[in-house]
Amino acid sequence: MRCHHYESGECSSCTLLDLPRPQQLAAGRARVEQLLAAHLAPGVAWSPPIIGPEAGFRARGKMAVGGTAQEPVLTLPGQASGADLCDCPLYPDGVEEVLEGVKALIRWAQVPPYDVARRRGEIKNVLVTASPDGEHLLRLVLRSERALPRIREHLPRLLAAHPSIVAVTANLHPDHTTRVEGATEIMLAGADSLPIRTGDVTLFSRPQSFLQTNTEVAGQLYRQVADWARELAAQHAASPRVWDLYCGLGGFALHVARAVPGARVTGVEVSAEAIEGARQAAAAQDIPADFLVADATDWAIAEAAGPAGAPDLAIVNPPRRGIGERLAAWLEGSGVRDVIYSSCNPATLATDLAAMPSLHITAGRYVDLFPHTEHAEVVVRLHRTASPETEGHP
Q: Do 311 and 336 meet the contact criterion of CB atoms below 8 Å apart?
């Protein structure tokens, strides 16, 4: 992939862009496999990596607003050059046009960009989510409600010029922090969610719910986990119980419920917004999966203490910090025979695996979710090779 912003020094986000793609993949895969080598079961080899296109793959754009109300500039957060990056080649077709439309809206409504140094101004960031069908969810991150009347006045003009925008919200973020968005969301126009075809299901992305940035690779990841779950289900009794912890919008749970007829699938996620999207997806596609709002660790420990006990299969997809000591300790002592762990931080995955010595990697794939960067993701299938009670005893 060529990028004139990178070549001119205006943007350094894609740190590996000078490295040919095959070398990027080989280096990333080698780092991950070496990091996790101690946890690999004997005789197990890594499967080929999950990869997607090298350009036009970013389903979510996060742009910081600079310049003036008359001449706004949209750049990536953290880029010192201040160059306008609306034409970033990582974005799929249609995103640049929407971002140019937002700049026009800022001019029409005369919304001053937020000045970080002076702590003055109104609009901080512009967030765009794109579906594979060319539809867009637009979020305007504002310091306060002060500019909302002017934005509402000119919003119909933007929507008429860009019919691909199916939903618009204002996110209020009054604090002077590095966070991209705040807690309050105000609907301005359109639907409350955006359908995103991902793998074999349609997810419903809501304004404050997490969505994987690379839709093509995420779909392959969900299919891989569903394939593993199907293989494992054949080893269990009818109606295996599957828990998807940190389920987000339900990508894993929905795929597994479709792939394994009769499976009793439960997704657990602390974000009520995400669970609402997961329930919407399950209902719209008649997929038999249940979704609950709860802390994944607290819920798993409490539920396993009940009459039904631990599940046949646990799927975990935690944030970068990993599953942590409590959940790792519970999984180690739970007797759960099979675990699938999707990690966005192989370093914390290695730490978690060290806390679960009874579980070993029996299959794994490097996941190239963010091409041209050193960010690495990985999905592993774990199998219990010794019971917690007998581990370390003759």
A: yes
Return the structure tokens found at 347: 């370093």
Domain with residue 111: its CATH number is 2.40.50.1070
- Tell me the torsion sign for CA atoms 70, 166, 208, 60: negative
Residue 137 pairs in a beta bridge with 129, 167
For residues 24 and 96, state if they share a domain.
no
- Would you give the distance in Å from CA 312 to the centre of its chain? 25
How confident is the model at residue 388, as a pLDDT? Answer: 45
Residue 197 within any structural domain of the chain: no
pLDDT higher than 70, residue 393 = no
Which residues are catalytic, by number?
344
**pLDDT above 80 (res 147):** yes
Identify the domain containing residue 129 by its residue range.
60-192
Spatial CB neighbours of 234, under 8 Å, sequence gap ≥ 6: none
Q: What is the pLDDT of residue 225?
A: 98
Q: Residue 60's closest CA among 377, 388, 369, 341? A: 369
* Contact predicate 88/63, CB 8 Å: no
Cα separation values, 377 from 62, 80, 93, 183, 339, Å: 20, 27, 25, 28, 17
370 pLDDT higher than 80: yes
Give domain status of residue 204, yes or no.
Answer: no
3-class DSSP state of 162: coil
Same domain, 232 and 184: no
Q: Domain count for the chain, please give it.
A: 2
**In terms of domains, do 223 and 146 share one?**
no
The pLDDT score that the predictor gives to residue 386 is: 66
Average pLDDT over residues 312-341: 96
pLDDT in tens, 262-321: 999 999 999 999 999 999 999 999 999 999 999 999 999 999 999 999 999 999 999 999
Q: Average pLDDT over the chain, rounded to whole?
A: 94
Tally Cβ neighbours within 10 Å of residue 163: 9
Backbone angles phi, psi at 359, to 5 degrees: -110, 130
- Count how many Cα atoms sit within 13 Å of the Cα of residue 321 in the half-sphere of its side chain: 6
At 124, which helix (H) or strand (E)?
A: strand 123-130
Where on the phi/psi map is residue 9: left (φ > 0), alpha (ψ -120 to 50), or beta?
Answer: left
What pLDDT sits at residue 391? 42
